[in-house]
Amino acid sequence: xxxxxxxxxxxxxxxxxxxxxxxxxxxxxxxxxxxxxxxxxxxxxxxxxxxxxxxxxxxxxxxxxxxxxxxxxxxxxxxxxxxxxxxxxxxxxxxxxxxxxxxxxxxxxxxxxxxxxxxxxxxxxxxxxxxxxxxxxxxxxxxxxxxxxxxxxxxxxxxxxxxxxxxxxxxxxxxxxxxxxxxxxxxxxxxxxxxxxxxxxxxxxxxxxxxxxxxxxxxxxxxxxxxxxxxxxxxxxxxxxxxxxxxxxxxxxxxxxxxxxxxxxxxxxxxxxxxxxxxxxxxxxxxxxxxxxxxxxxxxx
Length: 301
Ligand SMILES: [Fe+2]
Ligand SMILES: [Fe+2]
Description:
By secondary structure, the chain is an all-alpha fold. It contains eleven helices and no strands. It is globular.
């Protein structure tokens, strides 16, 4: 990876998440992760679009790992007695709404940037959650997530070589995903930063500083990949607006093309398929998850 574990680690000063006191908060967090892992089904889309054999092999393995991560979170939820529940809209937007429209967008936005954000959150949970069986599961999973981020970084660098327009588009879309992360953090700060006594939560009170570090790491990653050639602070608000407008302008063109095919979708036989990310909570595997608490995790580390 282009960033080290140390660079991506936040110092919570020894504060801990207590599985009993913080059950509601932990349940909320696990449900966001559960949704994120379920979006691993989107890897299948990109496997079909892989540019070379090594990329295809990587994605085939990644899809299996993400489905194992789904079970990891279900196992953790079972152990801590929390129920599967819907994810926050910003999480759905970041992991499904921001789904790339091209290979370059996928590896840059979903893998380098998106999984980079998730990795930081995993590190944060590993460093604070006072529940060893869950932390052990997460420690194995982060090794796989680190490989996913690394692949995203490498493939993004390859994709933008000699393409200034693509670099600008990826930067514009990255700014949107940073905005989404700020929205999510705003919700968490407002709704989840309280203990039963009303005092600020010992871990969640660090959220604004944790978010600042997350966005700083995202910026550093963009610079090391080569998407960003100067500090973000040197880009004024108007320049950022132009980058976002340009990125979505490109997308709008693609949207216009899909309008041409839209009437076909109105035909009665045109399949309107709900994805697993829409219906997973009702799936028997999730709804009836009964894996015994403490069952050893056998996923590849
Ligand atoms: Fe995962
Ligand atoms: Fe991943």
